[in-house]
Amino acid sequence: MTGTERAAAPREHPAPAAGARPRLRGLPGGLLWTGGALLLALSIAVAVTIGPARISVGDVWSAVASHLGIGEARLSPIRDGIIWNLRMPRTLLAAVCGAGLGICGTVMQSLLRNPLADPFVLGVSSGASTGAVLVVVLGVGGGAVSLPAGAFLGALCSFALVMLLSHTLGGGTDRVVLSGVAAMQLFSALTSFVVMTAADAEQTRGVLFWLLGSLAGVGWTDVWVCSAVLGVSLLICLGHARTLDAFAFGQDAAAALGVRVGRVRTVLLCTTALLTAALVSSAGAIGFVGLVLPHAVRALTGSGHRRLLPLTALAGAVFLVWVDTLARTVLDPQEVPVGVVTALIGVPAFVLVLYRTRRPA
Question: Of the N and C termini of the chain, which has fewer Cβ atoms inside 10 Å?
Answer without folding.
Answer: C
